[in-house]
Amino acid sequence: MMAEPGNRPVYTCAEWEIDLARRELRLSGELVPLGGRAFEILAELAQAQGQLVTKNDLTERVWRDVFVEESALRVHIAAIRKALAGDRDMVSTTVGRGYRLLGAWRVRDNTELPLQSAAGTWPLSVNIPNASFDLIGRSTAIAQLWRLLAAYRVVSLIGPGGIGKTALALEAARTPPPSFAADRLLVELASLSDPRLVCSAIASVLGTKLEGEEISPEAIARAIGSRSLLLILDNCEHVIDAVAQLAELLVSRCAGTVIVATSREALRIEGEQVYRVPPLGVPPETGHEAAGASAYGAVELFTSRAKALGSSFALDEENIGAVAAICRRLDGIPLAIEFAAARAVMLSPPKIAALLDDRFKFLTTGRRTALPRQQTLRATLDWSYDLLPEDEAWLLRQLGIFAGEFQLDAVIAVAGDGARDVTSQLARLVAKSLVVVDIRDDRPNYRLLDTTRAYAVEKLHAGGEYADAARREAKYYSGFFAAAEADSEVMLQAEWLAIYGRHIDNVRTSLDWAISSGGDSQVGVALTAAAVPLWVQLSLLAECRERTELALAHLDQAAANASRLRMELSAARGWSLMYGVGRAREAGPAWAATLELAEQLGDRDYQLRALWGLCIDQFNNGEFRKALEFANRFAEVVADSGSPVDRMMADRLLATTLHYRGEQRLAYHHIERTLSRLSDLAAKPQVIRFRFDLRVSARYFQARILWLLGLADQALSVVDQNAEEGRASGHALTYCSVLGQGACPISFLAGDLDAAERYCAMLLEHTERHPIRLWNLWARAFRGLLIVRRGDLATGLPLLRRALELAGEARFLPRFLLLLGELAASLGEAGEVSQGLAVADEALARCEAREEGWYVAELWRIRGELLLHPGEHRSPHDAAQAFDRAFEVARSQGALSWELRTAISVARLRKDGGHPADARNVLAAACGKFTEGFETVDFLNARAMMAKLTP
Fold first, then answer.
1. Alpha-carbon distance 559 to 574, whole Å?
2. How far is Cα 271 from Cα 268, in angstroms, rounded to an integer?
3. End-of-domain residue from the set 375, 393, 423
4. Alpha-carbon gap, residue 785 to 796, rounded angstroms
5. Which end of the chain is more exposed for a tag (fewer CB within 10 A), N or C?
6. Residue 561 within any structural domain of the chain
7. Same domain membership, residue 899 and residue 949
């Protein structure tokens, strides 16, 4: 018999409690989540009563003969401090030595009885086997189980195979509360082949001889009587009916008995409390450093088991990242993770991760002492599958077709017309822990664990059923997405994505099958066209392009709806090409094809999309005169019968084109008219037709125009508001434009480098999270520019040049012009005046050829400044001519901001030439035109120069 554990006290300080028996950290009685290793460290510190505990002592006591690096200890100390929140300073560090727990901690005995014991005279009986290894990541689950046992007589631990139900039950039985005084007996049922043997198995464990009496539930109940007993009935699923009948009888007749049952499904008896054993915690797919990943239970289990078996892989970023990926692929299921860890003796974690697609052949090295069904991953699932009746086994196979979440109507569609009672079959699979259900939304969403799905797909292929299931799935999602575009115009993006976004993986696998040698290409083409809004809303540009190009290549020209499908797919391809790297010039033909088909079909909606796309394409390619023609054509189409949104779009297109051409006053008229009609726009943003949020996009062009017109305060105010609106819109591509077209350049031009750096960091983070490479390149170039403006030419200039090189032809997009001009200026500062002049001249030639006027005045000013640098190119006369040209352009456009910058350059030249009065007059004339923006860097510089030039 196992001896009872000694008293394990509770340490208290103010509202904090550290309960060693329950392994809980509590604040004001509420449980504060804390991982198992972290709690053990905290317990060691608490028991030291404020004394220093060295790092070596902590690692030896907590990890017990397992070598760990010091970084692991630091990770768990950080987790403790995070849990303590405002009282994090109670964990004090003595640098280089160790840690201590500060505060006035008191010790009290733990007298709570989660399970009251009945009086008895017999010695306690315990048959729980000793643990052969530490149970990792289950301290919270153990505490929860004991809380449930304090309130309920039957607790069922349920979950899929390998989730650790048995391990959890046994570890809880090994570590009862200190005052718990009852027999703890394990009855293993896995080996039973006949439900009638359940009572015999229990009688044998009880040590009860029922001579002359039939071994029945009633006889077992009489034998137990009033005995205080914790009875663990392990692996009940294959004898579930017999166990349920017995358990219900025992709790009704044996007042001192509580039962823990482990099973794939609940007993479904009166008084039962079900606890679904959760998987071990796994790191999120993105945004987690290697050191942080080590704190998750699944990663800790993998590394612990691997090292115990003799693996010596380094805990570096690559390996920990691969381990995290393994744990995610295996859904945090402990048994599968242990199988994978066993392979780490011979293979690196990245190699193991790469081999998981063939996991049933690969993960076959279980513990020799484990039950046969737990020695390979396939055997674990075979056990569950073989227990299913044929109708449930058939449905599980069909569900393997879903790569992501799915709903009941999808299941019914995939099951087909011949299936019966699919709803009940699905419910039974959920009950048996083979299907996971999420009931947070109004409609339940289902999914298979990744390993279960791999098993089901294998069975689906083996039975020759895959193609039929895949065809039914593809047809279902074609219909499901039929209303997606219309819904996008009346729903917030978050609301829309909650309905449609979760199905992206199912769409992908359906298309992979359909557009393949054994698939149905026409079903795939229809699904591609229907799913375009999904890629748009998720800003998956490259995927949208690839999928639409495949669909266009497989489109059956003889099909009745071929022209419409080609039109829809061409529009989607044009949109995705427009924002791609290196292929933007291909967007024009795609939009032209869309326009031709739209006019043939009389589809006004797609006619407007095509005109919009052609307008944007033309000014992306530097054809601003043609862009204006398309903008005017768009305005003509919507002039009489267009919706408020269409008329706003017309003004937005005209404002954009006129702004880039340098006609700022007329651009201001159109952008103000756009914004004046916002009240006509529905409360919810429209994104789909023109692929961005119209409200938000209008504002960042408003900010650009305002700044050029010299209304800097208004421009900066719009930038602040627009950045928040853009973030809230949730549309990835719109937010890129908000930051890259408005916030970053305007804060930079205003001289607020701190704000520019903040917005740049936001854009970089955003474009690394979303696959929008062209904006990521722009942000990297802009970051180099900011480093240059901070005075670090040696670091910033190579970053700026490299990013522009990587952009390729995209550097000719209008938004890159600012970067090219600043590159020219930076080259001059670095002493590379010849190269700076070459960049400036190339940019000026480009602007003249394209009629791209918005930045011309600044380019002439930059050229003039380059001609004032020392060296062979220095020519004050030529510089003055360049400044005169800059003045001429800025004044013709009403661009007061460029005029002020030019005035500063001219004043500096005239002062250095011995004409201070002329210099002051130039500055005074320019500053006198401003009604606001008096705190921008340019205005402050101008006033400072004027003060120095005053006689």
1. 23
2. 9
3. 375
4. 6
5. C
6. no
7. yes
Across 535-549, 691-705, 860-874, the highest mean pLDDT is recorded for: 860-874
Average pLDDT over residues 846-866: 94
Whether 271 and 308 map to the same domain: the answer is: no
233 and 168: one domain? yes
Residue range 776-810, pLDDT digits in tens: 999 999 999 999 999 999 999 999 999 999 888 77
Pairing of strands 229-234, 257-263: parallel
**Among 774, 730, 780, which Cα is nearest to 579's?**
774
Q: Collapsing DSSP states into helix, strand and coil, what is residue 157?
A: strand
* H helix runs in 349-432, sequence order: 349-354, 359-362, 377-386, 390-399, 408-415, 422-431
* Nearest-angstrom CA–CA distance, 864 and 909: 10
783 assigned to some structural domain: no
For 735-748, letters b (16+ CB in 10 Å) and e give bbbbbbbbbbbbbb
Q: What is the pLDDT of residue 581?
A: 55
C-alpha span between 247 and 154 (Å, rounded): 8
The span from the CA of 190 to the CA of 555, in Å, is 55
Least confident of 529-538, 563-572, 754-763, 851-860: 529-538
* Interatomic CA distance for residues 393 and 396, integer angstroms: 5
Query: Average pLDDT for residues 746-752, to the nearest whole number?
Result: 94
Under 8 Å between Cβ of 35 and 137 = yes
Q: CB–CB of 352/326 below 8 Å?
A: yes
Rounded-to-integer distance, Cα 707 and Cα 659, Å: 12
Residue 311 is assigned to a structural domain of this protein: yes
Beta bridge partners of residue 156, listed in sequence order = 261, 274
The torsion angles phi and psi of 803, rounded to 5 degrees, stand at -65, -40
Determine the structural domain holding residue 926 and report its residue range: 895-951
**Residue-wise pLDDT tens digits, 576-617:** 888 765 566 788 999 999 999 999 999 998 999 999 999 988
The CA distances from residue 385 to 300, 382, 807, 824, in Å, are 30, 5, 53, 69
Residue finishing a domain among 351, 375, 399: 375
Determine contact, residues 267/306, Cβ cutoff 8 Å: no
CATH number at residue 183: 3.40.50.300
Whether 132 is in a domain gets the answer: no
How far the first Cα of the chain sits from its last, in Å, is 103
Q: For the domain that residue 74 is a member of, what is the CATH number?
A: 1.10.10.10
CA–CA separation, 326 vs 310, rounded Å? 19
Q: How many CA atoms lie within 13 A of 552 on its CB side?
A: 18
Find the largest Cα–Cα distance for the chain: 125
Q: For 150-166, b where at least 16 C-beta lie within 10 A, e where not — what string? A: eebbbbbbbbbbbbbbb
Residues 266 and 306 in one domain: no
SS (H, E, C) 570-618: HHHHHHHHHCCCCCHHHHHHHHHHHHHHHHHHCCHHHHHHHHHHHHHHH
Clarify whether residues 315 and 363 are in a common domain: yes
AA identity, residue 778: W
Residues 304 and 269 grouped into a single domain:
no
Q: Could you give the 3-state DSSP secondary structure of residue 14?
A: coil
Residue 469 near residue 414 (C-beta atoms within 8 A): yes
The Cα–Cα gap between 775 and 807 comes to 10
SS (H, E, C) 458-482: HHHHHCCCHHHHHHHHHHHHHHHHH
> What's the one-letter identity of residue 344?
A
Sole residue written with tokens 């799913």 = 531
Burial 524-557 (b: 16+ CB within 10 A, else e): bbbbbbbbbbbbbbbbbbbbbbebbbbbbeebee
Specify the number of domains making up the chain: 4
Q: Are residues 272 and 196 in the same domain?
A: yes
Region for residue 29 given its phi and psi (left: phi exceeds 0; alpha: psi -120 to 50; beta: otherwise)? left
d(CA 426, CA 424): 5
Q: For residue 538, report the phi and psi dihedrals to the nearest 5 degrees.
A: -90, 0
Same domain, 166 and 272: yes
Average pLDDT, the chain: 86
30-32 vs 53-54, strand pairing mode? unpaired
